[in-house]
Design goal:
5-stranded parallel beta sheet; 19% strand; 11 strands; OmpR/PhoB-type_DNA-bd; Arc Repressor Mutant, subunit A; 2 domains; DNA-binding; 4-stranded antiparallel beta sheet; elongated; phosphorelay response regulator activity; alpha/beta; 253 residues; phosphoprotein; Rossmann fold
Length: 253
């Protein structure tokens, strides 16, 4: 399958360089010079992924991304940002960007990001819905068939990466999962995982699930080991679970 990339970039030098590079790597590439027509373009042409520059005339990338997400469009998006624009990067991630690349960048870095995002989306969007019953915890309910998260009956919009991460946590509740294990379950065995997508997914999940993301109850950190999903949301459960497991292991030996 040949993937189709839509590059939204107003700088003709960057646009031509990226287009030629990606085409040499086997991708179909189309271009758009402004974020103003992105939503309309996606109604007539459906790429696999959008590479979206933030700094553009008429409509900037942040506004274009927000318009897509408000409309419920979940297409993968990688932002191109100025290196100093930390606020734009944070806002972009909060709005639902899958990743970002800071300018100036090596086209090979962008290629690596594209491959990672496509691999992640391909791995977590199955061909048929899973016949798993809804899972309830706290105020939340996960519906695997419709790929929805409900809070007090109200649907919460989740990116594909967030849903996949939550699904893994739910399937392995009260089990410590290392970063390597989480990445392997998300992407498959033997895949390199040097990008920030796992951090982003966990960060977003905590902002959605936790009353206080700085003191998480559901997705707790086990320092030096990884993360643990605590369905009952008890603070300190991670530490107690690890201690009890260590005692049981010692007794078994």
């Amino acid at each position: 399958m040949t993937h189709h990339i839509l590059l939204v970039e107003d700088d003709p030098v960057v646009r031509d360089l990226v287009r030629e590079f990606l085409q040499l790597e086997g991708y179909d590439v189309s271009v758009l010079h402004s974020g103003k027509g992105l939503k309309r373009r996606l109604q007539v042409e459906r790429p696999t992924l959008v590479v979206l520059d933030i700094m553009m005339p008429e409509k900037d990338g942040i506004s274009a991304l927000k318009e897509l997400r408000v409309a419920g469009d979940d297409i993968p998006v990688i932002l191109l940002t100025a290196r100093a624009d930390v606020i734009d990067r944070v806002v972009g991630l909060e709005l639902g960007a899958d990743d970002y690349v800071a300018k100036p960048f090596d086209p090979r870095e962008l290629l690596a990001r594209i491959r990672t995002v496509l691999r992640r989306h391909g791995a977590i969007v199955p061909g048929a819905p899973e016949n798993l019953p809804p899972y309830r915890f706290g105020r939340f309910e996960v519906n695997f068939s419709s790929r929805e998260l409900l809070r007090d009956g109200e649907r919460i919009m989740l990116r594909s990466g967030e849903f996949a991460t939550l699904k893994i946590f739910v399937k392995h509740a009260m089990t410590v999962l290392s970063r390597a294990q989480l990445n392997e379950k998300l992407r498959g065995h033997g895949v390199t995982y040097r990008d920030r997508s796992l951090d982003v997914s966990i960060w977003r999940l905590r902002r959605l699930l936790e009353n206080d993301p700085s003191e998480p109850r559901y997705v707790q950190t086990v320092w030096g080991q990884g993360y643990i999903f605590v369905p009952h949301g008890e603070l300190g459960a991670a530490e107690r679970f690890v201690q009890e497991h260590a005692v049981q292991t010692l007794q078994a030996h």
